[in-house]
Amino acid sequence: MVRREPSLFARLIVLIAMVLATGAAALTTAAWYYARAAANEAYDRLLVGAAYQMAEAVHVQDGTLTVELPMSAFELLALSERDRIFYRIVDTSGRTLTGYGDLPLPGSEPPAPDRPALSNGTFMGAPVRLVRASRAFADPSVQGRVDVVVAQTVEARTALARELTLRAVGLILAMSTLALGGTIFAIRHALKPMARVGAVLRERDPHDVTPITVATPRELRPFVSAINTFIARLKSRMDLMQQFVADTAHQIRTPLAALKSQVDLLSHHLGEPQARQHLARVEERVDQLSRLVGQLLSHAMISHRAGAVPFAPVDVTETVRRAIREAVPDTLDRDILTMLEVPPQPIEVRGDAISLKEAVKNVIDNAVRHGAATRLTVRLREENGTVEIEVEDDGPGIAPELWPRVVERFGAPSPGGSGLGLSIAADVLAAHGGSLGFRRDNENSFAVVMRIAGRAS
């Protein structure tokens, strides 16, 4: 049972949906990183601003450092209702002036006045974002740096990053949905030519074997071309079958009519001397009919195998030997000296062994029945990459003016023959890239030369 494959439409939709899902996942991840960076940047600015305001609130009074924390600094940080705020101010000697004394100082070195240090940490069991700002004092009584550390929990910025990400995800999902919908519409529209080709094939008459001429996109042209190639091969097979039926009906009708008349004559002359003569004619017609049917079947088999059976290495020497055994009957009513001349080394070609044997057998049979009187020689040789099989006899041969006709079906039938033998051989050789030729050396020597192009590698 042929396994059912999913439709091309479904496969395209699944593949595109997977691509869109992968892209949406990548975009969602990127959106989360960008949203978190944007939230950190926004809240870091508030945190740095508060730290600088606190640093500016440190003054030297009566030789000592005093702090008057501005409310505006806390108001900036109080914009986030969820977060808690921690701070610490350290004087030049490292003592805590105010704030949480255990609040850690970010960084191992004091930051530059215009570049505060930012870092992540944990304080009182909660993750916090810390900023450290420094302010230098050059008063005669106070000299050195004062560090201001401000920390804020990260709930607000995490919530902001989540909200920005969800909005981006919503936009991504909306765009992906629109893209998938547009893709479905585009694919359905793009696959319409395939449905049109299918409709053309379904609506065709079963006897219509003309090529498809429907307009198709460039991508479907190989598909339509393959269908047209198949239709052409099917038409060729149908033509061969019709030709075979027509040839068989035409050629068998004549021997059958003659056979019937001989049987009628024989039935009216039973016991008379003419009966033996009529019986001999009946036997001759039966033999002729048998050979005709055999050649027609051979021609049909070769026509079927042409182009359908892949070529393989063929031992030509063995093929010729088999053809001689089948073509020269043991019960021949005259003595014919049959000789086979082959080279010592094997000769191989790429071809169809059965078709080549039938071709050689038909040529030898033709020589035995209509040519050879006392001698038949079959030679096998190879010259310039071409394999030649020569069948020579000492008969009268074929007149040169008939050479073009005898290679055609029923082109020049001989008495008692059908005119099929040499045409079968010519068709087989043409399918193997070769040809069938004739040669006459003298009055007692006529040869049929079969040429096969190429030697098996």
Quick structural overview:
The chain is of the alpha+beta class. 50% of the residues lie in helices and 21% in strands.
Task: Write up what this structure looks like.
The chain is of the alpha+beta class. It has three domains: 11-162, 2-Layer Sandwich (Beta-Lactamase); 205-305, Orthogonal Bundle (Helix Hairpins); 309-453, 2-Layer Sandwich (Heat Shock Protein 90). The protein is built from ten helices and 14 strands. It has helices spanning 8-56, 71-77, 155-190, 192-202, 221-268, 274-305, 316-327, 353-370, 403-406, 421-431; strands at residues 58-61, 64-67, 85-90, 96-99, 117-123, 126-138, 143-153, 312-315, 337-341, 348-351, 375-383, 386-393, 435-442, 445-453. A five-stranded antiparallel β-sheet has the order 4-3-7-6-5, covered by helices on one side. The protein is rod-shaped, with a radius of gyration of 51 Å. Its EC number is 2.7.13.3.
Chart the SSEs and their pairings.
Blueprint: H1 8-56, E1 58-61, E2 64-67, H2 71-77, E3 85-90, E4 96-99, E5 117-123, E6 126-138, E7 143-153, H3 155-190, H4 192-202, H5 221-268, H6 274-305, E8 312-315, H7 316-327, E9 337-341, E10 348-351, H8 353-370, E11 375-383, E12 386-393, H9 403-406, H10 421-431, E13 435-442, E14 445-453
Helix pairs in contact: 1-2, 1-3, 5-6, 6-8, 6-10, 7-8, 8-10
GO molecular function, one term: kinase activity
EC number: 2.7.13.3
InterPro entries: 2CSK_N, HAMP_dom, HATPase_C_sf, HATPase_dom, His_kinase_dom, HisK_dim/P_dom, HisK_dim/P_sf, Sig_transdc_His_kin-like_C
